[in-house]
Design a protein that fits this description.
Layout lengths: L4 H11 L4 H8 L3 H8 L6 H11 L8 H17 L5 H33 L2
Length: about 120
């Protein structure tokens, strides 16, 4: 079966009456990113999981194969990295989120400036 993952997620998000702005704030991404995800035929397990967590929906019912594969992979990784330090990962994630949000903010300001200059 050729399942369009983005459309399924969009349907569930809208069915749960979750606003796109609210979802984008929870996920720390732009609204445009959310809409781009809705147009994707496939999405990574991580994105599906994060959306599900943000709207409190278990997507394992809709995409069981993705969740089984991710579960098996995480078990394999747990065996390999049992003594790892998670603090470095948290710092990296915070850094990436900071710069991503900074970039999005600057891009939105730039787009607003373009709109203003095109109106004259």
């Amino acid at each position: 079966m050729n399942l369009n993952v983005g459309r399924v997620i969009e349907h569930i998000v809208r069915e749960d009456h979750v606003g796109i702005s609210e979802l984008s704030r929870k996920l720390h991404v732009s609204r445009r990113t959310i809409y781009n995800w809705f147009n994707q035929k496939t999405l990574s397990y991580e994105i599906i999981y994060k959306i599900g967590k943000a709207i409190k929906h278990d997507f394992s019912k809709e995409f069981p194969d993705d969740f089984i594969a991710a579960n098996q992979e995480s078990k394999a990784n747990a065996v390999l990295f049992t003594d790892g330090d998670d603090h470095e990962d948290d710092a990296y994630t915070n850094s990436v989120n900071y710069w991503m949000n900074k970039y999005i903010s600057l891009l939105e300001k730039y787009n607003e400036l373009l709109r203003k200059t095109n109106n004259f």
